[in-house]
Amino acid sequence: MPGLYTSPVELAPADYTISGETTGKSCGGRFLIFPYGFTYKFGVTGGMFSDYIESQAIYDAISKVENANYLVNPKFEYETTSYLFFASSTCVTVKAKAITLKTGPVK
Hints:
Layout: E1 16-31, E2 34-36, H1 49-63, E3 70-83, E4 87-101
Antiparallel strand pairs: 1-2, 1-4, 3-4
């Protein structure tokens, strides 16, 4: 049975630049089963509740660095508050360095 796998892509040092640290933050929540607070500033990335908030935080961090393509070594901080069993709110902050590709991957 074939499985999914990833393989590393080698980049030459001249093909990308790494910026200083950038941060992004996003918050959202749910009331019963209904989510709120999403801005949808990203593509389709997953189905779990916190994945949407993480994706919005990543988008926020990347958008603060002009022409950035990726984040490297992201570190996430979560703040969650629950209100009995009816509602909760979550804020995610991501800190990372942004990468800007110049000419792309090399083989």
